Amino acid sequence: MADMHVALTNRCGESKSPYVRSHMDNATAWQLWAPETLELARKTNRLMLVSIGYSACHWCHVMAHESFANDRIAQLLNEHFIPIKIDREERPDIDRQYMDFLQATSGGGGWPLNVFVTPDLHPIFGGTYWPGPKSERAQRGGGFEDILMKVAGMWKEQEQKLRDNGKQIMMQLREFAQEGTLADGEADGPDDGVELEVIEDAYEHYKARFDNKYGGFGAQPKFPTPVHLKALLRFGAHDQVVRDITGDKEVANARSMALKTLEHIAKGGIKDQIGHGVARYSVTRDWSLPHFEKMLYDNAQLLPVYLDAWLATKKDIFVDMVHDIATYMTTQPMQSKLGGINASEDADSLQTPKDHEKREGAFYVWSMAEFEQILDEQELKVCTKYWNVKADGNVDRRFDHQGELIGKNILCVMYEVPELAKELSISENDVKATTTSARRKLLEYRNQNRPRPALDDKIVTAWNGLAIGGLARTSAALTTSSPEKSASYLLAAKRAVDCIRAHLFSSADNTLRRVYREGPGSTPGFADDYAFLISGLLDLYETTFDDTYLEFADTLQRKQNTLFWDMQKFGFFSTAADQPDILVRTKDAMDNAEPSVNGVSAQNLFRLASLLNDEWYEKMAKKTIGAFEVELSQHPGLLSGMLSSLIASKLGVKGLMIVGEGPVVEAALERIWGSIRTNCTVVRVGGGCESGWLRGRNGLLKGFTPEGEREMVQVCEGGVCRLLGREEVGALFGEV
């Protein structure tokens, strides 16, 4: 029998992750996910408790306080298990593997994710938050102490049965991961595979789940789901063939659903009404009570969606959100000194510098007494109505599970300015001026008197890729209307690329690292790191027309193909083939909080194929779509990110080439940057743009010398190219 009596010491201080390090003072002797830890589990024949979370996770902090710092829980963990703490943002592959297990066996999931795992890495039992010994919830049963004792006893008495069960479950998950893909992946032509009519099915999926009162989908909790909102906004921007399939009424309703959702988010508590940025999700159906953590990946995706909303409507509320989110990502504390953008801010913080116990949302909520202290009489009169501030607080007690928000107010915009002006018998300008001055005072008070939530200052490659793309598109669209802010957003995108090149990219083998913090992390980049960064670089190229960004994207795409492409059934695996600690190698096609790897990759391949005149990239894009024919046919609404690529596979990609300078070129750029473009790429040579590499890579441009060439705007689609005059440029994309 293996030696069960091994002395463990807490190793969290060896990690660079702020989340893992936050557990270094726990009585629990946490180990790191490393080869020596896995070997220790095998030698001692102990179950591992794999506990996965992230820095901004509120319930992760609750469980750490209630359980992992508790002497009794620590004793049980240290004597009977190998406890391992993992930051899910560093190892999304491990998280995905065990989250799939939990969802398959329990129907639910979330964080913290706690899974009991055999020395062979097979999961046998798992859950999310389990209450600690002193928690009131534990008194009702199902507490963490009871679970630990029961699992330890079962391992001692029924080890082989647990091993067999774990192995069987992983075999089923492995089989499930292969379902839905083509046996030979041969669908790669415009007449093969899934038809465009599934777009109508996707629309019906969204419509059936849409909340007509508050926007969004379903009841609560409510997530922004930017991938789906993007698809809805863009239904009407596709070719007439697509609009005919969906129907004019349906296209209008799709856009309406997205705009209504975005407006409610902008006015809700999920939006930081005093500062900047959007929280991860709303606990309530009406967007009023957020889960207060702010994640880069949410804000990075919402930025271009709000930009599309503004381009479609020109409504101030949407461009205000564009500036708000872009400002959040490009200023302290989110933008690091290295130029990359940090990962997240916590939900919890201290109410005052003198407090010792953090509370959820303490940085963001307000009492009526604070409003009376900070604001003058007019501001108080206007703003208590405008933001729904009440003497006894405005948080529904049913959703305040820990009683931390009693007497507090979460600011939500409850009035339109004309409506409030009429009710208070003042001018609209007075309402705007009053809320502006109040917001400034409240922000100053908050910054001076409240400790800011903890910052997770990891630089995650994938999330920076999302941010680079959003900032680049935003900069291009605002070139004329807000030139100074446009320039600052573009500079931030460029600095993020420079940061990744310098600290997360190896030119020796063209590989990426997943995370930078106090140096590059040891974890290699996953498929989403490559795909999301490539997408951002393509957006940055089409803003600057500096082909060094296009060259970097091409380099990364080639490496992504080498590391992650499935040669048998096509599409991209999320992890590389040589990943040693993964039991199930999955392919990601369904959009969740982040877009799917294969959805983004297919779009990247189509764009690169058009920009570089590369037929192989186009074939790979079509094979990627073909690999998920079953999923697209059965559940198109869950694969929103792949719909645009499906359209490209059938109808092709429109390619624009701009040469030189002049009024037609300027008109074309204004139209390009100010429109919602779908399946359209833009190449520019001459006019001071860096294009030497591009002219060597794109066979159609070889030998082309832009110097001295006359001004030209050309569009190619369906195998036919034509020159455009100024009037034709104005009609390039129809109605936005």
TrEMBL record:
- Enumerate the spans annotated as Spermatogenesis-associated protein 20-like TRX domain: 10-173
Please list the GO terms describing molecular function: catalytic activity
Per the record, a Pfam family?
Thioredox_DsbH
InterPro entries in the record? 6-hairpin_glycosidase_sf, 6hp_glycosidase-like_sf, Ssp411, Ssp411-like_TRX, Thioredoxin-like_sf
Q: Which PANTHER family match?
A: SPERMATOGENESIS-ASSOCIATED PROTEIN 20 (PTHR42899)
Enumerate the SUPFAM superfamilies for this protein: Six-hairpin glycosidases, Thioredoxin-like
* The protein's name in its UniProt record: Spermatogenesis-associated protein 20-like TRX domain-containing protein
The Gene Ontology biological process annotation of the record reads: carbohydrate metabolic process
